[in-house]
């Protein structure tokens, strides 16, 4: 019995030793696999790191090249800008001041566009002044800059629209005849023409007056005001050569015959013209 027990014990010990050895071998093999995986992963990381380092170096070079290109373009742009300022004989401050002048014209035109046609006629001198200022600004080389030229074109469009809204002549007034009135006395009134010799103008403007010596109370007469831009209203003391000599007409007394030819229907004798006649002024 004792011998059998000793054999069993020895066998048990042997089994345990084998079991322990097997477990140790299995653990060692597992550890070996983990270590190899680690080495493989580490090698992969190092390869990717090398690739990333190469890419970073390439990107750094590209960035450096781009910075150099940008610097070159900026230098070229600065040179072009300097050349532009040289050609227009100005600088940035001068261009900004020029644009401010154009903005001022736009503001004035917008204000005038709110007026009635009658008020526009009364302020046509201001509109002519704006036109003259614009034409003067257009002589400045700064006006050749694209953004400036665009703004000038906008102003010209606005101004043309404004000018088109100006009546050729102001709206006529009205006068109601009272007892004792006649055309001479009406024309003499300060609020009418302040000149009795202008009575024919009232006569011509009112077709209901058949006889200039006969008008009646309560008649409402049209009182014309002003004349068109290519017309001249004759006043006392004028003759054709004198009118032709006015700067706003021809500025040349010898051109009186052009006035005569254009108004032969109302001028019987070129040596005689009368107050209140409205002469057409032909232009070349």
Number of domains: 3
Low-confidence stretches: none
Q: Provide the succession of SSEs.
A: HHHHHEHHEEHHE
Q: How does the major sheet shape up? A: 2 strands, antiparallel
Corresponding CATH superfamily of the largest domain: LysM domain
Cα Rg? 51 Å
From the spread of the alpha carbons, the general shape counts as: elongated
> In terms of structural class, how would the helical and strand content be classed?
mainly alpha
The assigned CATH architecture of the largest domain is: Roll
CATH topology of the largest domain: Membrane-bound Lytic Murein Transglycosylase D, Chain A
Strand order of the largest sheet: 1-2
- How much beta, percentage-wise? under 5%
Helix content: 55-70%
For this structure, what is the CATH class of the largest domain?
A: Alpha Beta
N-to-C terminal Cα separation, in Å? 154 Å
List how many beta strands DSSP finds. 4
Describe the structure.
Helix 2 (92-112) packs antiparallel against helix 4 and helix 2 (92-112) runs parallel beside helix 5. The protein has helices spanning 2-87, 92-112, 117-122, 124-137, 146-164, 183-188, 199-205, 240-245, 256-262; strands at residues 173-176, 220-223, 231-233, 278-280. The model has no long low-confidence stretch (mean pLDDT 86). It is elongated. The strands form two sheets. A two-stranded antiparallel sheet has the order 1-2. It has 284 residues and is mainly alpha-helical. It is built from nine helices and four strands. It folds into three domains: 1-86; 88-164; 173-280, Membrane-bound Lytic Murein Transglycosylase D, Chain A, CATH 3.10.350.10.
